[in-house]
Design goal:
mainly beta; four-stranded antiparallel sheet; 3 helices; 36% strand; globular; photosystem ii
Length: 414
């Protein structure tokens, strides 16, 4: 279906749109200690004499006395303060620590970003109208309020945040778009049409006054003047594209519900998105008028897809499978990589470098690779995290976070 011309965000994606920007200010609200105990080794308690052949020289009384002495040592050692009991509520993670957050346990954390001009200053988003702010690199967080959202009595789900220089953007559901030009010290709300095709699920700051915004129906809008108007980068929604191309052999397209399950952008502006049912995926490159659908080459349905640090793709399937594309760029050729997922679904992958990456998923599953994804090992110390881990974000090679439900945030220690 082609989309009719309008000055608002509608299903016609081919024309510019214009919005009016009232100003709105935010009201600012205000290691684990790994203990070890070196115990005496219980070696050769019944020591033989220099004549090893005469075992009768070993005194049973001597054996009993040494055993009793060791037992007394084990019993009395803690009384001298040589060790401190470990905190029972959390066990040490080999590379990560759990961060305490001032939010309700039911909140699902969805995105995180830091200000390039001030690497210690960042924002954390989630459901239930959650926006948190840090000024110490993510060690501590405080809530930020949105007066206009509170007045309208909406319970916003903030999906995505991005910064370029001092400029930042936030999008959420119901439709809300926020912009800052002073590193997040103040924010303004940009009104959007209720006829916007789909919910805004992703935004990327691309330059001075510029950003890309994506909806779950495949609309991509671009602004170059701080959101005063937006231009469509694709000519139709994904549903319209599939209605035209369903005869081209895309499996499952006739059952497509018209929305994305996930969408990820590469550093050079290419997109990959997974259909809501996970039965195929779609790609888009700058300059293309439509999304390009692709058949999945694996038996199980796709959970999520994204970009490796070397420019290739990773692909997650339901049930815990992980696949890597052959080579770099857009392709339909993937090969499976063995992982110790224990049957739990893997939900996201984040690359710290070309060689090191972390994967996270259900029931606190946390996996690591140090060879670009060829082999993975499980961080068993994370097994006791009673949460699903949805997102892995590395800000740089020394700053990373894992976001989950029930307000779980893990910070990378390195």
């Amino acid at each position: 279906m082609k989309m009719a011309t309008t000055l608002q965000l509608t299903t016609d994606l081919s024309k510019p749109i214009i919005v009016v920007k009232p100003s709105l200010e935010f009201a600012s609200t205000p290691r684990h200690c790994r203990t070890s105990l070196s115990l005496p080794r219980f070696n050769n308690i019944a020591r033989a004499s220099s004549s090893s052949s005469d075992s009768s020289l070993v005194s049973r009384r001597h054996f009993v006395s040494e055993t009793a002495a060791l037992s007394l040592t084990l019993t009395t050692l803690p009384l001298f303060g040589s060790i401190q009991p470990a905190k029972s509520e959390e066990s040490a993670l080999s590379e990560w620590e759990k961060v305490s957050l001032p939010i309700d346990p039911g909140v699902v954390l969805l995105d995180i970003a830091f200000v390039p001009e001030d690497p210690k200053h960042g924002f954390l988003l989630g459901t239930r109208q959650t926006i948190l702010e840090t000024k110490d690199g993510g060690d501590t967080w405080v809530p930020r309020s949105i007066p206009s959202a509170e007045d309208e009595d909406f319970n916003y789900r903030f999906n995505s945040i991005s910064f370029k220089g001092k400029e930042g953007w936030i999008v959420g559901k119901p439709a809300i778009l926020l912009h800052t030009s002073d590193s997040g010290n103040s924010w303004e709300r940009i009104p959007l049409s209720s006829q916007l095709p789909g919910d805004m699920v992703y935004i990327k700051a691309t330059g001075e006054k510029s950003a890309e915004m994506v909806t779950d129906e495949g609309a991509i809008y671009i602004t170059s003047n701080r959101g005063y108007n937006w231009k469509a980068a694709v000519q139709e929604t994904v549903s319209a594209t599939l209605n035209r191309t369903v005869s081209s052999g895309i499996s499952g397209a006739s059952y497509y519900t018209g929305t994305f399950n996930s969408v990820n952008r590469s550093p050079d502006g290419n997109y990959v998105a997974v259909s809501s049912r996970g039965n195929f995926y779609l790609t888009w490159e700058p300059g293309q008028p439509f999304w390009q659908p692709h058949n999945r080459t694996v038996a199980r349905r796709i959970q999520n897809m994204g970009w490796r640090a070397d420019g290739g793709l990773w692909l997650l399937v339901r049930g815990g499978g992980l696949y890597l594309s052959k080579g770099t760029g857009l392709t339909e050729e993937f090969e499976e990589v063995p992982v110790q997922s224990r049957g739990f679904g893997i939900l996201d992958v984040g690359y710290r470098s070309k060689d090191e990456a972390w994967a996270a998923g259900g029931s606190g599953i946390l996996l690591r690779t140090t060879n670009g994804g060829k082999t993975w090992t499980r961080d068993k110390a994370a097994d006791n995290i009673a949460a699903n881990l949805y997102s892995v974000k590395f800000i740089d090679d020394s700053t990373g976070f894992v976001l989950g439900n029930d307000g779980v945030l893990l910070r990378y220690l390195g």
